[in-house]
Specification:
With 270 residues, this protein is α+β, with helices and mostly antiparallel strands. It contains 8 helices and 10 strands. Belongs to the PTPS family. QueD subfamily.
């Protein structure tokens, strides 16, 4: 059984390599390179796993989880300027993926009666990193685009389409505010602390996905869906294909069609 606890804290940091020029730091890290720093209200999801206890009806006392995590966060992170006050991040870059990797190493053996399963660190609503029991760290960047579409398959009759898709088969179409999650994997670079250069990732997604689909009618305005039914299942597969050659460490495509409908795709080989 798995149990998740959310922890909230605030911290400041900057991204800079001291041996680099100002120009190079700005090119790689953008506004995050400002020596004066910036800050975030972080959200840390701590997931533990353990055996269900029949007598108590719980896996572990949540207060025991809180004691371990909150004392660690308060001592090392909350209210701190990480580059200046944290010994580890005086040497290593406090990127989201770097922080979650450090947290895993420090917390993994601290729990009693349960085992740490996964840490998810949200820097903001559009960026988060995850670390589990393997060596892999993932980083997810979130994007938004608005599109219209009509769910209609050329391989089905008019009656079959209407019966299957209902109002979504409306001949004039309908629309959504899509939220796209692009997840990459790897080990944080020892110099930059990054799994991927976020500026380059943003450029690929902007060029290959957002410019093609944002404020478009997918059936009528895009080549990808000229003869392909633009379901969200098809959309995540198409987006994977558009990005796979540009992002070699692509791990997953996630797509929120609505607040209730979510789809994800890990590529053809998984």
């Amino acid at each position: 059984m798995y149990l998740l606890r959310k922890i909230f804290f605030s911290a400041a940091h900057y991204y800079r390599v001291s041996s680099w020029s100002e120009e190079q730091n700005k090119k790689v890290f953008g506004p995050c390179s400002s020596i004066h720093g910036h800050g975030h209200d972080y959200v840390l999801d701590v997931m533990v796993t353990g055996a269900f206890q029949q007598d108590s009806g719980i896996v572990v006392n949540i207060n025991d989880v809180d004691k371990v995590v909150k004392s660690f966060i308060q001592e090392e992170f909350d209210g701190k300027f990480l580059n200046l006050e944290h010994p580890h991040f005086q040497k290593y870059m406090p990127t989201t993926e770097g922080i979650v990797s450090y947290m895993w190493n420090r917390l993994e053996e601290r729990f009693q009666g349960c085992r740490l399963h996964k840490l998810t660190l949200h820097e903001n609503d559009f960026l988060y990193a995850e670390k589990g029991r393997d060596n892999m760290v993932t980083l997810t960047r979130k994007y938004h685009f608005s599109s219209a579409h009509r769910l209609h398959s050329e391989q089905l009759s008019e009656e079959e389409n209407l019966r299957l898709f209902g109002k979504c088969n409306n001949v004039h179409g309908h629309g959504h505010n899509y939220y796209l999650e692009v997840t990459v994997f790897g080990e944080p670079d020892p110099v930059t602390g990054m799994i991927v250069n976020l500026s380059e990732l943003d450029q690929h997604v902007e060029r290959e996905v957002l410019q093609k689909f944002d404020h478009k009618h997918l059936n009528l305005d895009t080549e990808e869906f000229k003869h392909l039914n633009p379901t969200s299942e098809n959309l995540v597969i198409v987006i994977w294909k558009l990005l796979q050659d540009k992002i070699p460490n692509l791990y997953k495509i996630g797509l929120w069609e609505t607040q209730k409908n979510y789809f994800e795709y890990y590529g053809p080989n998984r």
